[in-house]
Amino acid sequence: MSSTLAKIMEIEAEMAQTQKNKATSHLAKLRQELITPKGEGFDVAKTGDARIGFVGFPSVGKSTLLSNLAGVYSEVAAYEFTTLTTVPGVIRYKGAKIQLLDLPGRGHQVIAVARTCNLILIVLDVLKPLGHKKIIENELEGFGIRLNSKPPNIGFKKKYKGSINLTATCPQSELDAETVKSILAEYKIHNADVTLRSDVTADDLIDVVEGNRVYIPCIYVLNKIDQISIEELDIIYKVPHCVPISDHHCWNFDDLLEKIWDYLKLVRIYTKPKGQLPDYTSPVVLPYSRTTVEDFCMKIHKNLIKEFKYALLWDHTLEDEDVIQIVKK
């Protein structure tokens, strides 16, 4: 175990007896060390319209699931973290090309790749899901990845003078002026405007101050459902963000793919050449947060925006399965 991880565990154990805000910010600084890359890492070229990272313990069926979905062979053996490299595969679903990454183990370089994903799938053995789930969640959290959550609704702006100016637009259950000042002092920040727009925690404030968190949707894939009862399966179906499957029998893959599509929030735009019918075979796929006509043009080619004259739309904004015709100068 690295010395940084050991220190983190010590501080977490002592937080009950320590001044909480100081311990929390010191913990955040140690976690920052974990996020900072060390040595030569590796990366995988990002291709397609979205990227999904598969994370999980050995023998939960992670590599088999990816192989079944994408036809990618991932070298498997019976020792810990058995996938030897980050193996990319690509599936085409509803017209979108989606890159699948089998992430080997949970080291620095692997987490660096996980931070670039649009969606994370945590693959769990349905017979022992909770223990593995908590361990993986804690490790991803420690590397600055926030699962199924949105950035804290906190305004934060450093300034040269004027001390700490705190504004709260709603009652706060944890943070007050002294706590905020104490946390910021740990980062040698003594002049800043802070606006709390919802009931937030010290951890939320630290996330905003550090500014390097990534917020990624996550699906928990509970594998090996062929080994449980129908009654147990009914309970699992009610758990948020979960999809039960059997990779051995290829059960419930349709539900998994639908859930993946919902969580990726991709938008398909069809092009209509002048004087022709729309091309419904090859959509231009955009993330839901970037659906302007300019985004559409840039996705096709960066030079298209220079030649752009006007666009014919069949709606005011670009939404999934809309049709657009671009007219050049």
From TrEMBL:
Keywords (A to Z) from UniProt: Coiled coil, GTP-binding, Nucleotide-binding
Annotated OBG-type G domain residues: 50-265
Gene Ontology molecular function terms on file: GTP binding; GTPase activity
Record InterPro entries: Beta-grasp_dom_sf (IPR012675), DRG (IPR045001), G_OBG (IPR031167), GTP-bd (IPR006073), GTP-binding_2 (IPR031662), P-loop_NTPase (IPR027417), Small_GTP-bd (IPR005225), TGS (IPR004095)
Domain of life: Eukaryota
Domain TGS: residue ranges: 265-329
Name of this chain's protein: OBG-type G domain-containing protein
PROSITE patterns, per the entry: G_OBG (PS51710), TGS (PS51880)
